[in-house]
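Entry 14. Structure prediction run on the chain below.
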Amino acid sequence: MANKNMDIILFGMQGSGKGTQGRYLAEKNGLTIFEMGGQLRQIIESDSPLGEKIKGIVQAGNLVDDDTIMEVVKNFLSFLSGEKAVLFDGIPRTVAQSEKLLDLLAKYQRDAFAVLIKISEDEAIKRLTQRRVCEGCKGVYPPSYKADTCEHCGGQLVVRHDDNLESIQRRLENYKNETLPVINSFYERDRLIEVDGEQSIEKVTKEMFEKVDYLFT
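Output returned:
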């Protein structure tokens, strides 16, 4: 079982497979996954005051601001057992978000460590231009998966409309400009574990488990 309140912040360039590896890590160590996109969709559908607020922001074509994102995190933590550790996926994306998130976690007397699934930009482009996504559960499948339907929900696998070279390069540029400084800040504080994401899925999982094991014993 995970150490009390030792949360994991999962980083990885688009195409790194961090969603898949995050699920494996959560299952092995009893972590609750906080995935930013999923949380926003869930709250919007809840018809709560926070959901109405976020729906208005999105419908106006605006990005959800950092303070509102922290409201989402606070809402999530408020329903969580104090003993339950969290895996954060999709947050923080910027230095400002990182500072706000760590401040919020400190208020809840929680601790956090970062894990980076590391791949090169060339490898990211190669994977993103060849992957497919399930129309149903939004699961992501690499080129090595040959079936046309999702193994989890049976949904049809399609190429995302924004998985074209121009869009991919723009997203990777944003990652380098906005998220890389966040990753570096964890590295400088000796709070970062790096995993080679260019191995097979099984080898990435094995290396990740071996490197993070001491955090959960």
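Strands lie at 6-12, 32-35, 86-89, 111-118, 132-134, 140-141, 157-158, 192-196.
Filed with the rest of this week's runs.
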